[in-house]
Amino acid sequence: MRIVVLKNAQAVAEFAANHIIALLNKKSHSVLGLATGSTPIRLYKQLIQANEQKKVSYKNVTTFNLDEYLGLSGTHLQSYRHFMNHYFFDHIDINKEDTFLPKGITSDPMLACAEYEKKIKEKGGIDIQLLGVGSNGHIGFNEPSSSLASRTRIKALSEDTIAANKRFFAVDEFQPSLSITMGIGTILESREIILLATGSNKAEAIRNTIEGPVAASCPASILQMHQHVMIVIDEEAAQNL
Ligand code: GLP
Fold it and tell me: Would you identify the family this protein belongs to, as annotated (predicted)?
């Protein structure tokens, strides 16, 4: 594990963006694994800026997102498809047909999970997977107690996660309690992983991720077993190390 501690959230975003851009500029076709949540928004801004300044192109990039709410269509304002379009895809030169997220609306969610796995393989696997981390140590929507070998599947969200994400939903709005998420086993097959965390509310999860035992109680701790992981955090998230 390479641990990079930087002054603040902006420095984290810039560092991660430079790392990703260098990879994209090295390969003729790349597969990026992407994440939602508030943490990567600054990173997406940097990646958009680099595209505008012609420092990078996304024309030959395929993306796979970690997760999606089950029950929300891609046009729903809280869907992760909408999030990705709004914060990233609508502002870059990527072909939208090359951007994949698990299907939020499907008559056969189990089949949709299997097809998602198949699609990742067809595209050659993920070169670099971006991760945030939940304050309970979840990655994607792999909540504590998730199997460390899990594949893309339907996952019930924990009370903690539902509460943490409530802020995005209006008072009377339907908030899903189920998701489709890449499994931990799926994530670990990425050739490289970069996890970002900022702010003191992530300090405990970061300590458990880096210094704790590898355990399903903190799904992110399994990253200790991957050969090519970089954890990029600000000083607040690093305060318990
Ligand atoms: C959600 C997402 C995760 C994300 C986490 C943390 O639950 N499924 O992929 O890492 O939230 O989000 P934030 O960056 O807003 O703290």
Answer: Belongs to the glucosamine/galactosamine-6-phosphate isomerase family. NagB subfamily.
